[in-house]
Task: structure prediction
Amino acid sequence: MARIVCSCGTVLSNSLSPNDIQLRVYTDKEWEKVFDCESIQPWQIPLPKYEVWRCPMCKSIYVYENGNNQPIMTYRLENK
Ligand SMILES: [Zn+2]
Result:
């Protein structure tokens, strides 16, 4: 997955690295597990379980799992 079109019409892409589209979101339990060892290097930190994209225009959030192209959850602001 590298490109989606948000419901507001904005094209979201993760082709730039780093970018402002992808968020690294870990649960507190996931984060604790990452550091449940003597030491860890930054490159050893695993990717979070969910892939989270945020539209910079309308702030909608798309949550993906296991590389699926369809989001399992979508969030939109109630009040803009
Ligand atoms: Zn949008």
